[in-house]
Amino acid sequence: MEKAIRKYAPIFVIPTFAAFIIGFIIPFIEGLYLSFCKFTTVKNAKFNGLANYIHAFKDTQFVHAFGFTASFAVVSILLINLGGLGLALLLTRKIKGTNVFRTIFFMPNLIGGIVLGYIWQILINCLLSIIGQPLLALNSTAGYWGLIVLMCWQQIGYMMIIYIAGLQNVPDDLLEAAAIDGASKATTFFRVKLPMIMPSITICIFLTLTNSFKLFDQNLALTSGQPKHMTEMMALNIYNTFYARSGAQWKGYGQAKAVLFCILVIVISLVQLRATRSREVQA
Amino acid sequence: MKRKFLVLSLVAVLVLTSLAACSGGSDGGDEDSEATGSVYYLNFKPEQDAAWQALAAKYTEETGVPVQVVTAASGEYETTLMSEMGKDGAPTLFQVNGPVGLANWTDYCYDLSDTEVYANLTSPEFALKDGDKVAGVAYVIESYGIITNKNLLEKAGYTVDDIKSFEDLKKVAEDITARQDELGFCAFTSAGMDGSSDWRFKTHLANLPIYFEYQADGINQTAAIKGSFLDNYRQIWDLYINNSTCDPSELASKTGDDARNEFLEEKAVFFQNGSWEYGNLVGDGLFSDEDLVMIPIYVGAGDEANQGLCTGTENYWCINAEADQADIDATIAFLTWCVTSEEGTEALANEMNFTIPFKNAVPSNNIFVMQDTEYTAAGRIPVSWNFTTMPSEEWKNGVGEALTAYAADQTDENWNEVVNAFVDGWATEYAAAHEE
User: Fold this and answer.
1) Domains of chain A in sequence order
2) Spatial separation of the C-alpha atoms in residues B137 and B156, rounded to whole Å
3) Chain B interface, mutation test: which of A11, A25, A41, A240, most B Cβ atoms within 10 Å?
4) Is-contact B90 B84, C-beta < 8 A?
5) Is the pLDDT assigned to residue B180 strictly greater than 70?
6) Between 20 and 30 A from A219 (CA), which of A251, B8, B38, B167?
7) What domains does chain B contain, in order, with CATH numbers?
């Protein structure tokens, strides 16, 4: 029976695979081709070699956007994962009301990025106005920290759920054995729990890393890159290259940036997966 | 053998259904295009969507030619147009917003010089040209200026006739500010620099220094603006932000709705906006035609006694040159019908409130539009819309950000930033838009 299923496995894969080819592979290859072209629509593309890539590398705004995105990613990955893990530890202690709090912390994740961005823009602007600081549109420091606060608020709850699932999977006998051996709470956490939840850490870091790099909605709604592109992240920079410029050549530049962006995200996340996977252990 | 057939047919069904699910987005248009051709209009103005649908249905009823009208979501026109143009059954009729917008689409614009639509324009100035080719024709003429609440102005002891120049406007506005607590209202609505409102200043108000410079130099576009009238721009901006309903440092977050609501709630006398706001202002019955008047934006330049409203267009119809000839012909016939027939012109004027620049136009009942006609009849010269020559959206954003920063901290250094964004930004962005 199992043999028969195995034999027909490719057949069951076909529908999804076909959709994947149509919805992902073909557009991706077309996009790759367009990045070497000057075009207005996908139909009138004219090949122009590496010109788009040369322009993309020379674009100081794009380079700045990369720097800004990277520094945002580092801080937000740290804060979100520490926050998520911290909450997960608190909420796996069998305290009263645990489920209510889990639900509450998870809820921000259900609101869309654009809506969140505008709500936080109002909140942060009110705060800045009260303390007499320049508003978000003129204040890149506030924009940077605003984005981080917003992303933490939105994502900590989600990561918390994954960490809770991981912590609940740590076998009780291991913890018991550690307790009998006289391990302190800190030792139990660092030597037993942490290695056991490495798979959760892998997935959480992967999610926060890719989310931070691909961040668009929140960036557009909260600061929209102001002031002077100082808080513009890579995805928004690509969007602006496409739509805020006139002249057909800009479409190609935007496309080349998008390809570079895609490769960058793939490479970084592969490196990260490899690095954290290697530290996973079996109980 | 039988089982194999069963498996294969199951696979076929699965693949077909998943494919069908994927292709659900592309809707018809091709099957309609028989010998007669068909029309597909990608409409820019969401406010007029219902009226266009009705007009299209009427045309189809009369002639049997199918007309499909699709409206792009507000602010999403370029995005929608770009993806629609890449498809089979692309729009046959679309719009660009002036010479800068045309730069993207010029390859797709059918030459309209031999069409009746072009011949019917009241002035060849309303055509958008690319060399000798007539790439587009304007379809709506709009005006903007300072919308004034006559009742409040009277309460403050003035009438519209007291405002004939920038000096007058400044005197009135500053007097109202001085007596703000006693009067209970301010001079200007908030000059919000949020994305929903900043175009009123980074685009429309910025048109005035550009217009006066073009006039002085006798040109109608340039690769490098000199900024000869930027001091006037500063004067009017200072007046707007320092005599308004809110602290200038809070303008960064004020929206278009904020300004409109302040005007509707009679918190301010003046509101810079255009004839398109007419419906919003009289719609709820808060104002009637007698309460409102639009005055020119005086900046203290040129011949102020003869300055009219800022009147022009940034909406040009273009026909897709890549469409089938039958569809192109059908589209030209549809447009001709819209701007010459009784039903067409009637609908454009009364249903859509458009003032169309065509010979058979029916006068609109929009008072701001009527006022523009009166001003022009009285010998005042309308300020043309030169903001369509601004090099890019990026340039406007740069000027807007510098204006916002200056409003928050009104120093000469900050004004220099505005000048830099205006003058140097223009040269950089012009070069960027024209590089190969």
Assistant:
1) 53-277 (1.10.3720.10)
2) 44
3) A41
4) yes
5) yes
6) A251
7) 34-141+313-359 (3.40.190.10), 144-310+386-434 (3.40.190.10)
